Task: structure prediction
Amino acid sequence: MPSTPPSTKPAVTRNDVARLAGVSTAVVSYVLNGSKPVAPATATKVRDAVAMLGYRPNQAARALRLGSPEMLGIIIPDAQNPFFADLTHEVELAAEERGLALLAANADGSPERERRLVEKFATRRVDGMLLGSTLAVPDLQALMPREMPLVLLNQFDEIPGVGAVGVDLHEGALIGVEHLADHGHRTVGLISGTTAGGTLDPREAGWRTAIERRGLTPGPIVRETFTLPGGHAAGRWLIETGSLPPALFVSSDQLAIGLLLALHEAGLRVPDDVAIVSFDGTRDGEFSWPPLTSVAQPVRPMARAAVAALIDDPAAARRQLFAPALVRRASCGCVPAVSGTGPARR
Amino acid sequence: MPSTPPSTKPAVTRNDVARLAGVSTAVVSYVLNGSKPVAPATATKVRDAVAMLGYRPNQAARALRLGSPEMLGIIIPDAQNPFFADLTHEVELAAEERGLALLAANADGSPERERRLVEKFATRRVDGMLLGSTLAVPDLQALMPREMPLVLLNQFDEIPGVGAVGVDLHEGALIGVEHLADHGHRTVGLISGTTAGGTLDPREAGWRTAIERRGLTPGPIVRETFTLPGGHAAGRWLIETGSLPPALFVSSDQLAIGLLLALHEAGLRVPDDVAIVSFDGTRDGEFSWPPLTSVAQPVRPMARAAVAALIDDPAAARRQLFAPALVRRASCGCVPAVSGTGPARR
Result:
């Protein structure tokens, strides 16, 4: 890993914060670490001083506590989404290689719950934290002053001075839509997932780029939550309004599995009536009917990179963006779905 | 909740343990709580004395620490199984109602990893622990002497003096097989899941009871891991050996979804060629194709009961067994799967 520290900020120290807030440096630590209760008015003064000065704790001091680091924490936005279950599991394995256990907490789509969990982790429970935020850009006010090594997961947008790992969502959608174009489809629709912050998903821009680049006709866009029921509802809407396009890029495997149910219920065939490429590359999409062609996130390398960034070089504080890769199965038409009773396909 | 303490043990005290081990009572606490390092030889003496005397810490002292309980821990055997993701989520919601956050850790099928996670939780991280063990009967030697409120989850076997919540697996299989008999099937096979300890799953006994009670012909039994690939492998085996029965009870939704893929790949139809009832009642089974008729575990009531047992009355220390209930969908033939393009079925 590169070890050049970033030179993003002037050297504001804890002394400066203490002086401006009119408290001791110990009190500044209590507030930032949550290690001792401090009167609310005092805490506010400290936080105001931190914000005013743009103070960030010495990056070196944020390295994993010397002595006996033994536990990492991970906060994910939706523990019931198999992608995050897979990601958590890979982080767990990567942590275990370093002799560290992993505790997981679930923000369950709520930025408010996420904030509370960050508090709890930061206070005393873990030696380093991985955060897959419910928001496209998490609340850095709350995160950055803490003296806790932190790496963001599932992070597409670059945030200066913050360690982060993510997948190239724009590129992923581009790959998916171009693959449908390669199958001869001239109209490709989009089922997109919505997020807590309401920001536009980069996969939508990637879909649009591919449409333009290939001179395709844009099909309908449906936005739903990144869930099985969300995908089902999107499919029902497209069917009932008669607007189902011949090809669809779907922003997650969970959305696509929900969509498949709506198509089956209507007696429609995949890929004959509608070809599908989804996103994530989870095991659930491998076992759906038909199996999903999906733009897979490199979950294992991302998990290992995140743990390495946390442990080896928290001072590097940069974002690493990983390239997704197409996994071809039956839903796009690449692989015949039914093999008869002959020898195994897999 | 009942508050009568169980009268299962004579009053062996910490003093007795200290005397036999030749150490102070403080050292006994250090060892049992892991709150301070103790020389290995001393720790062994204390553990031997605990075992010899059958010492259990005062149940009252094991109630959630007074002051500021704020965090519960849950250890589950397989975080990638959606049933455990659902259970964890419901425990999280039940804990949140009590103002407690939940940290989750995954034993990932390994009793050894489970033991290490119990250690870590017990030492200092949480105020109470829920354990869904990888084993049919967890390692009580390791668990019971700890001064930490504990409730077992997913626990079928009764363990005297231990708080536990579980579902009636035997009854669940019985309901499932009898439902297939009600559809007119005279031969019902079984796809069963294997567990770390290698003990026989009570669902297998339930299947057998139903076969006998209804005078059915037992179909083949296939045992595989409780996973999607396990179910797929079981299906391939039944198809390739020509032993696929007209009806199957499948011990988990994940196994059944894997089975569905094998059947689809072979061009077989569900329920026409083979009718299926599975177990768990997860959302994944609601969105599979066809949707699974499944014997559902009452996840929410179980989660609430487990948290209540942990917080309100850890001294009650009894097992609560919940009744599962059949959810009828298409895989058994109760509900037609294809609705055409007409109005919504769901």
About this structure: Chain B is about 40% helix and 20% strand. The CA atoms of residues 336 and 342 of chain B lie 13 Å apart. The first strand of chain B starts at residue 71 and ends at 76.
